[in-house]
Q: What sequence folds into this?
């Protein structure tokens, strides 16, 4: 059980590091940041349209 918890902890820690690296790269480059923001806005608009149709 201890080894499973240790493995899960290491995976979560690695994932957090990867996310930090990704966010750092996106915020350091305005061109990439623009595309990411555009994608999130499109996702939000799509979700809102689907919710309105319900």
A:
């Amino acid at each position: 059980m201890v080894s499973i918890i240790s493995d899960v902890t290491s995976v979560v820690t690695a994932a957090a590091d990867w996310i930090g690296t990704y966010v750092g790269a996106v915020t350091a480059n305005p061109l990439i940041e623009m595309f990411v923001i555009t994608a999130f806005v499109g996702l939000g608009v799509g979700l809102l349209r689907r919710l309105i149709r319900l």
Observations:
- The radius of gyration is 17 Å.
- Helices lie at 2-28, 30-53.
- DSSP finds two helices and no strands in the chain.
- The longest helix spans residues 2-28.
